[in-house]
Amino acid sequence: MITLPSPSELDPITLWAVLVFVVFLVLEILLLRRRRGAAYPTRDGVQSVSLGVLSTPISAVVRTGAFLIFSWLYQYRLFDLDMRHALPWVLLFFGDDLSYYLHHRMGHTVRLLWAGHVAHHSSEHFNFAVALRQAWGELATKYVWYLWLPLVGFHPLAIMLMSAANLVYQFFVHTEIVGRLGPLEWIFNTPSHHRVHHGSNIRYLDRNHGGILIIWDRLFGTFEPEAPEEPVRYGLTHPLPPMGLLSLAFHEYVAIWRDVKRAPTFRAKLGYIFMPPGWSHDGSTLTAEALRTQAARQPASGAEG
To answer: Quick one: how far is CA 290 from the chain centroid?
Structure first.
């Protein structure tokens, strides 16, 4: 029989990290006011924090379900990895981060998955509050990319712990306060790399999907450095009008349904669900790769800047 641990056992790191998040949010507000003399985007920040708070019970349910599935799969593990030693934890660190990369990249590659992730990218600001702007829909599919870990032999509780640590790290890359970090930029996901990820500039679209490490993006061709000559424009390529939390969380699912209904063929209907965001059966809208190709064919004077 599988013994179900308490929520604090499944995610002890995030619970303790909340206080740290609050402290860094306050520090960021004070530093930005001192540097720029500008008001913090309060409405946007409240919306971001609200999405994060309301995602907590959803996340708790999903993590519990994931733990149960991991525990079942763990019975059929290939190896008995002793988590009392350091090496399995090192291997799990890389395995967890690769799993997160795959999950995150697919969230930008398949429109149905993008519908669950898009809320996180909807802010036109970039700060610690945006890190808490959790997209509810993606929680339902996130752990699909982690199913191989218990089969290899990583203990389910260890997987949940490492996953939580990865998310806590990502809070700290959501800021404009920190510039480039020298040699660390080659290995780790940094604020500079993650600013690119949140950019709506054509050259920055669907880039830098890493969690803690940036090596996966470098290996798999999705890396793009932050360019001094092209400041990042945050948000979506088509900014959203003001909307409530429920609309923000689920608007893209509604848009998919509308596109599916109007699609002329069954193949086109599937395309609006499973092709990348921006795909259209008639070319009226373009994917990120198509936009990049189009921009590359334009004269330099007409390119995005």
So the answer is: 22
Is pLDDT of 271 > 70?
yes
Q: What share of the chain is helix, strand, coil (3-state, %, to 5)?
A: 65, 0, 35
Look up residue 22 and give its two tokens.
Answer: 């609050």
For the chain, the distance separating the N- and C-terminal CA atoms, rounded to the nearest angstrom, is 59
Phi, psi of 234 (to 5 degrees): -80, 155
- The residue type of 201 is N
**Confidence at 189, pLDDT banded by 50, 70, 90:** very high
**Distance from chain centroid for Cα 117:** 7
**Which tokens belong to 51?**
């999405």
Task: Name which of 125, 167, 153 is nearest 29 in CA terms.
Answer: 125
Mean pLDDT, residues 202-216 taken together: 97
| Per-residue pLDDT reduced to its tens digit, 6-53 | 555 556 666 678 888 999 999 999 988 887 666 788 899 999 999 999
Which tokens sit at 11? Answer: 């995610």
The 10 Å Cβ neighbour count of residue 65 is: 12
What is the per-residue DSSP string for 32-90?
A: HHHHH-----HHHHHHHHHHHHHHHHHHHHHHHHHHHHHHHHHTT-SS---TTSHHHHH
The pLDDT of residue 301 is: 46
Residue given tokens 């398949």 in the structure block: 110
**144 in helix, strand or coil?**
helix
Rounded to the nearest 5°, which phi and psi values hold at 227?
Answer: -100, 125
- State the Cα–Cα distance between residues 35 and 14, nearest whole angstrom: 30
**88/65 Cα distance (integer angstroms):** 24
HSE on the CB side for 173, CA within 13 Å? 27
Q: How far apart are CA 289 and CA 292, in angstroms?
A: 5
At 116 the pLDDT is 97
